[in-house]
Amino acid sequence: MFADDAFRLRPGLSFRFETIAEGLPVMLVDGLYERPDELREEALSLDYAPAPFDYPGRVARMPAPNPSLTIFLRELLGLVNAQYLPRVPIAADGRRIANFHTVRTDFAIVDVHPDDLRPPQRTPHIDPIPIFGLVYLNREERGGTLFFEKVDASRPEPASNSYLTESGSGYALRGRIEAAFNRLAIYPGFVPHSAEIGRWIESEERFTRPRLTQRLMFF
Length: 219
Description:
By secondary structure, this protein is an alpha+beta fold. 14% of the residues lie in helices and 29% in strands. The chain contains three helices and 13 strands. An eight-stranded antiparallel beta sheet has the order 1-2-11-8-13-7-4-3.
């Protein structure tokens, strides 16, 4: 069970922007949580279930409300509305989105062997929400997030079972978020993207030392 202050933020945080595909911004906050190793340990003890979509792994929801998480999500929502959303041209029903009203969170583990990937999991995807966030919670190298542009819709699905980590299969690599430990990244979910998965996924490390992220979804 998470302690009441498990999601306490490190004092003196600051944010910055980097540019990815089509000149769109990514917001980065480094050193987010005060005790990220403890947070990772607790998060890995949650009950994970297969994702009900094409995510190549499992997801877990928070088992109960948490005071420090509530504070973090409230502050994050204000930051995204004030600093990030004005920089990203997104609209709904023909109108530009001026504010998000809520942010939801869960944890996700990537653990599907390349041989077991379904065809949709071998190519970049677009999120069902316009703005998405991740906290990378891995001290080992587990890869960041890659952004692509679809350049050839006529190309068939790749013949080999693999995670796409470079240009190919009708997509051109256009940007990357490096997965620094305890880094928060806010990015446009409407740009095709995928997790940057290395050879470790072929070993038992996908179970013993999995790629863990905290996911943040804005509505």
